Amino acid sequence: MEFLLVQALSGLASAASLFLVASGLSIIFGVMRIVNFAHGAFYMLGAYVAFTLTDRFAGPLGFWGGILVACLVVAAVGALMEMLLLRRIYHAPELFQLLATFGVTLMVEDIVVLIWGAEDLMGPRAPGFTGAVTVFGRLVPSYDFLLIALGPIVLGLLWLLFHGTRWGVLVRAATQDRDMVASLGVNQKWLFTSVFALGVFLAALGGALQIPRTTVSHAMDLSIIVEVFVVVVIGGLGSVTGAFVAAILVSELNAFGILVLPKISMVMVFLVMAVVLVVRPWGLFGKPEGTPRAAAGLSIRPWRPMSALERMGVAVAILVAASLPVFAGNYALSVGTEILVFVLFAASLHFLMTVGGLASFGHAAYFGLGAYGAAFMVKFLGAPMELALLVGPLLGLAGAVLFGWFCVRLSGVYFAMLTLAFAQIAWSVAFQWVEVTGGDNGMLGIWPSKWASSPQGFFWLTLAIVVIGVGVLRMLVFSPFGYGLRAARDSTLRSEAIGIDRKSTQWAAFIVAGTFAGIAGALFAFLKGSVFPENLAIPTSVDGLVMVLLGGIETVSGAVIGAIVYKALAIWLMSKTELSKLVLGGVIVVLVVAFPKGIVGFLEDLRHRRRRPPAPDGAGPEAAGYVAKVEAAE
Amino acid sequence: MKTMIGVALAATLLVTGMAKAQQGEIKVGEINSYSALPAFTDPYRKGMDLALKQINDAGGIKGKKLVIISKDDGGKPGDALTAANELVSRDGVVMIAGGFLSNVGLALADFAKQKKVPYIAAEPLTDAIVWSKGNDYTFRLRTSNYMQAAMLAEEAAKLPAKKWATIAPNYEFGQSFVAVFKELLTKKRPDVEFVAEQWPPLGKIDAGPVLQAIDAAKPDAILNATFAGDLVKLVREGNTRGVFKDRAVVSYLTGEPEYLDPLKTETPEGWIVSGYPWYGINTPEHKAFLDAYQQLNKDYPRLGSIVGYSTVMSIAAVLKATDDHNPDGIVKAMKGLKVDTPFGPIVYRAADHQSTLGAYIGKTSVKDGKGVMVDYVFRAGADYLPSEADAAKLRPKD
Fold first, then answer.
1. Which residue of B has its CA nearest to A125?
2. pLDDT in tens, A12-33
3. Is residue A360 part of a domain?
4. pTM to 2 decimal places
5. Can you tell me the ipTM of this complex?
6. Domain presence at residue A175
7. What whole-number distance in Å separates Cα of residue B356 and Cα of residue B378?
8. For the segment B4-18, what is each residue's pLDDT rounded down to a tens digit?
9. Which of A183, A218, A253 is the last residue of a domain?
10. Which of A218, A239, A271 is at the close of a domain?
């Protein structure tokens, strides 16, 4: 019994660390609707700056002062980033800010190594909190008690701030309805910057307070960012109290879970999130989101199938690609094949995100399932490549049928996070089920059949499959099903009124996207000759998102270009420099600012402007703006 | 449309960078997790650079300059394969080397087998790479999981402890290490029992609850296989909570400067560890290495430096041993190849392709505010490997 109480205390201390970071994210999320991927980076920066300061200035004042100053410094950096980067892209489609913060995260990971060196740094212990307190005959670090106390204190201070100041009232109002706040004449710029700075301050505090417990390293951000997101979502978007309760829930379940199942840590938070979201679609303390005023993929220019000229262009491009093996070397071909595989993967995600209006953060699950499906066929049934390529993706399809059924009951960020949860559960199964999947050592020896084993042969095979795949996805966009899907995306009320069932339509779209991702995954398995859990891990999902956003979320096939640009750049940089993350992140940030509608979105804007200068027939932006206003009035 | 133009563009970009092989050069490819794990790979690269300089200063490979082309794998097997492909298809290297993570090593090993390219796995510790998934083209330098488990189990068996608990990161490295240690210790000491186990995810240990759970089982001794940031958290929490008090701790890799140095004054006393006490190895081979290293780098070597140095020395040795630099010629020469390393001469065993590189086993202590190894002894790798005949049986028949 006493042991269980002490275990609960340890859990509370972990919860406090998690809550500090999560509270900042929740505030930013709630007010600005920004999926701030860089939150982990600020957490890490907080720890690094605090390390430098506390290392320089010893003593209690040096330590606590150092932590405070570190948080202020990092908050200032955050505010600067908001003003210089995010402000330029608030008008961009939702989620585009995610891309910007992702770019920043990549850069920070390399920058901290350049500044502070590669070695892990160990900060001092907190003066006055170095020892332990005896609780029921067991020693509990006194620093744990400090953290346990700090959680409710920060929660209380935030409550006072939000309920006792005018600023807080505005923040709460903006969390509930930011358009209304804006139309009442509140200066949003200032509000957003201050909210962002506060959120970053809390992230930095969370990081700085870790230095007495762990080492500071360049991988700190990754170790926390996803968990923090999960906590925020379990608690309910924008609810600080929710984040507090969720942090405790997750940490305590973990502390006790490992007593029964020592390997549960890996997947615990995602299991909790999946259960919570299935039972309570808006998290523990969240409220249903108000009807969004602008649909995610609302196009100013209606989509249309390609003209005859464009079809010719595509045919020529495919012919050029098909002739590549004649003059390109083996390496170029295998890179080309890899890019093609990701073209299909990104196109499948794009279909779900753009046509379906459903942003998935866990699309790698179906890619990976397809890859494992193919690997199982080869390893356990001795199937040849042809059969494995046909049957393997069915595992992706099965996963999409199962997970999709739960996911389409939600919408917006909650939908995205539930897809992430399922992807992580699938990942942990691949990682843990060593007997079947080989665990993290993966499955090896998944090589193509003889006729396709040359880089040329496999390139042609992949090209054929990808061209067909992207073509089918494009045809679906302009099929009755595609129109129905777009209707469900743009207006649930109207589409249901004319007899389109939102859930089943979106579920079907989810399955289509999952299946095509599975096909890409199966191809990838044969390209690499192996499958690993990383195929369905978060970085693969993020890559897919980046490709779609980079291409342009409001376009029909932007993901194709996004995938080519991003993948080619990533491979090329990886080969040329060890600071590939810094350069890649920098390029993403520049692209985000230069092309807020994505590369293809930008190109289409350009073409549109050149073709029809002042929209003579009244079908131009004004009319579209009118449509948007009508939608907003709903 | 733009799709394919893009592919073509990307491809031409890549092709134009193609370097022409120069006469009088031998090119070898090297892949490691430079961006993902700089704390290990920086010293590793310094070791490689030193060896490369020494070899080329001494006339290279029979008059030809040895060139090593290094690529980053970002810690991902998929990216490692892309890099390997570039090295082999475009740069035309005669063999590849490197790797830190076990899954990257296994992916490269399978690539080596498929493309028939000799591969020296520098750092990956997994036993699978030479045994259950071993192949003709893959050789491994580093003292393996099995060997270090055997060395540590030997010390553990001397302890009076009967009840053991284990903490290891939840992936193949940790799982297989604990499994081998358990097996070998139980063989020597049938009276021991394992009363608790904890498997925190790599890089995400929640040290308080984990240690509390271990403590509750009241073990006499603890086996630890966590490292890097996880190790620091574990040690700090454990010291404060008194979990390590009056308990023997056997800790894998903890004596390596990479992982010991960050612990500074908090280094626990008397843990039995494997590692690299660079400050106290008095063999002439090591002295020569240390002097040259410190002259070049103004920094002390880590174990990664030894691995990097010995990898390049192995490459040079095999390329000197045969004039047939085709894959099969190199593989033939690798079998039974003798190489001089800072840890003394090693042999790549013909039967299972594992080198006999040894390791230092000692105890941890604090000296001048720094963590150090004391009472260390060198354990020759050959003494802790199964016989070649037995090891050959562990490999798949192809």
1. B236
2. 998 998 999 999 999 898 888 8
3. yes
4. 0.88
5. 0.85
6. yes
7. 13
8. 444 554 444 444 444
9. A218
10. A218
